[in-house]
DNA sequence: GTGAAAGCGCTAACAG
DNA sequence: CTGTTAGCGCTTTCAC
């Protein structure tokens, strides 16, 4: 029942605990024969050095704290997958907490884990945190020697490693793609106009228009503040009716689905009359009809990258501060020609 | 930089470390004045007792190990949400690992965490584990004093606390519901016929038929082994063509979407000609057209329940072994009349 | 080649 | 009311 300790093994062979410790760590100080028998015994009995004792001694837990705004989102679930995979590969465990987009929760989590539970944080900021521009909790953590790597939703004002999606380029390239297909009246529908990434996407959209020589028309931009996806249609329908558009870029899948429904309802064919492209994590896009062309985000790679950066930092493999940009890919399905 | 310890505080006030320890724990042995100044100082300096030292001393980590087959699945993400919420509420942290449906991975994870990292496991078995009926790693863990609570995909042969969905009743009630709406030719499409929960759902379907007096026709059951959802339609279309059905129950959302597409393609109206109901986690169902009626699974409640059972067990609040069944709910949307 | 002892940060029994 | 000490499980320096 009780777990086997170095002490028990020492007793078993009538040697000191330091001999056992050294034998298990294959020290040159210990004779081959002693090492062999001790190692064999330890293996047989499935001995494992106690995690907390090691952490205490080494002042390092080989554990990463992950803070996500939510897990009920395919993108973040993918990021998590990448983090977990990379962490495990590198011998790290992952303590995962959900901020639920709340600043208070986020800061409680940081407090809770700042007691030697973890070696560093991997996080995407809560919406509330971003809206209120309250980043002191991050700063405190870094100042206290617990490094942070931020991903996707990052805090501009905090100096730390970051991994972000290429939202700007993604949007710009999409406009260009649509233009080349002959689209001239390209709308932009955003449900995250208040977030930094939303602003980036809008900027990219504008940049794309400029590049191909289309003029920006603010009537072709719809910002939906409403957070309940069921109500998207109340905004989308009139928007579509009152504008003569031939393409739509949306910031998410859910609103793209609403948009496609609204388009169909108003007698438009997709993609014949109107093309639809969404920033997307993939799950709805692949099941919609028609299947959606998406600006695909590579959450898993983002997670892997962020985890690797943090681990390298923890193991002092590099110390400079970087911002890594993960490219988006246009995945062409059936909602574009 | 370096974290404040009890020792530092002791030095600050020229008292012993035990005085500090007791003061911080509000011991009756310490004078009010001493307690006050020490507590005040600790608070100011944001002192936090070292997690690893505490765990080592108490032989308890207040940490739960969670093993999920995948996180890229709305249901499991919901379960995770429930676990995380309950754990945090009870002062527990959560180390989360993904088995990716692999037995080897699952058992590595258990090995890795069985060194005093965690107090207990919360897990849903990997598919491979279930198919091969290899459950020794679970048994070992329990025998070694690390309790396990299983949820959703549980191992019949392992004696431990379990939380499961009411798959049997869910399917049976659905048949009854359809029958009352006038459906007589009710098909059953499964993509998990090899899993225990799949068998339960099929049994429930049969039970439902029996109850309402319809005879079981094995031609109305389609088992899809193919795991790529893109290929579902290859099986679903001929199945639909060769059978004259007026309702379909599926084991998942994804295949329900394929089924609805196939039905529409063959000229059937949903729900007028054929009703569709899926066991579901909700995300696709809410965005399909028509919106899908579902046998809804309450992942979050399952997670909360499982976590609470484990924590109660760890804190010795109860010791008997239970299996808790979470009811399903029929959520009626537009794919049924 | 092996062992004694200190120390990681904390608690608690015991002494004063 | 405060302090000394042992001990949680392990590593590591220093003796022998």
Give a structural overview:
The structure is a homodimer of 337-residue chains. Chain A is α/β, with parallel strands linked by helices and 337 residues long. Chain A has three domains: 44 residues, no CATH class; 131 residues, Response regulator (Rossmann fold); 131 residues, Rossmann fold, CATH 3.40.50. Helices cover 45% and strands 16% of the residues of chain A. In chain A, strands 2-1-3-4-5-11 form a six-stranded parallel sheet, with helices on both faces. A six-stranded mixed sheet of chain A has the order 7-6-8-9-10-12, sandwiched between helices. Chain A binds a DNA duplex (16 and 16 nucleotides) through helix 2 and helix 4.
Percent of residues in helices of chain A: 40-55%
String of helices and strands of chain A: HHHHEHEHEHHEEHEHEHEHEHEHEE
Please state the average pLDDT score of chain A.
Answer: 95
* Gyration radius from CA atoms of chain A, angstroms: 26 Å
CATH homologous superfamily label of the largest domain in chain A: Response regulator
Largest sheet of chain A: 6 strands, parallel
Name of the top-level CATH class of the largest domain in chain A: Alpha Beta
Q: Which two chains have the most extensive interface, and how many residues on each?
A: A-B, 47 and 47 residues
Beta-strand percent range of chain A: 15-25%
Q: How far is the N terminus from the C terminus of chain A?
A: 65 Å
CATH architecture of the largest domain in chain A: 3-Layer(aba) Sandwich
User: Are there runs of chain A of 5+ residues with pLDDT below 50, and where?
Assistant: none
**What global shape of chain A is seen?**
elongated
Number of domains of chain A: 3
Oligomer: homodimer
Helical segment count of chain A: 14
Number of strands of chain A: 12
């Amino acid at each position: 029942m009780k777990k086997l300790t170095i002490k028990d093994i020492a007793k078993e062979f009538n040697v000191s605990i330091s001999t056992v410790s050294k034998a298990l760590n294959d020290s040159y100080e210990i004779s081959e024969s002693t090492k062999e028998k001790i190692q064999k015994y330890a293996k047989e009995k499935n001995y494992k050095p106690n995690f907390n004792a090691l952490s205490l001694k080494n002042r390092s837990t080989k554990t990463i704290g992950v803070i996500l705004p939510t897990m009920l989102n395919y993108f973040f679930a993918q990021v998590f997958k990448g983090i977990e995979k990379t962490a495990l590969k590198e011998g790290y465990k992952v303590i995962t907490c959900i901020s639920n987009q709340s600043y208070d929760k986020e800061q409680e989590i940081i407090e809770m884990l700042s007691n030697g539970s973890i070696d560093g944080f991997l996080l995407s900021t809560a919406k509330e945190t971003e809206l209120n521009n309250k980043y002191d909790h991050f700063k405190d953590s870094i100042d206290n020697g617990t490094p942070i790597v931020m991903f996707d939703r990052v805090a501009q004002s905090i100096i730390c490693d970051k991994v972000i999606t290429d939202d700007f380029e993604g949007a710009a390239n999409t406009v260009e793609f649509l233009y080349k297909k002959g689209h001239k009246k390209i709308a932009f529908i955003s449900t995250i106009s208040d977030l930094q990434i939303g602003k980036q996407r809008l900027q990219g959209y504008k940049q794309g228009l400029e590049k191909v020589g289309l003029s920006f028309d603010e009537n072709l931009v719809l910002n939906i503040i409403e957070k309940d996806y069921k109500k998207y249609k109340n905004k989308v329908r009139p928007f579509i009716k009152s504008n003569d558009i031939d393409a739509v870029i949306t910031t998410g899948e859910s609103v793209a689905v609403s948009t496609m429904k609204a388009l169909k309802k108003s007698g438009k064919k997709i993609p014949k009359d109107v093309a639809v492209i969404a920033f997307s994590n993939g799950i709805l896009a692949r099941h919609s009809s028609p299947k959606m062309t998406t600006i695909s985000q590579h959450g898993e790679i983002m997670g892997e990258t962020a985890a690797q950066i943090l681990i390298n930092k923890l193991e002092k493999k590099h110390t400079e501060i970087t911002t890594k940009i993960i490219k988006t890919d246009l995945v062409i399905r059936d909602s574009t020609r």
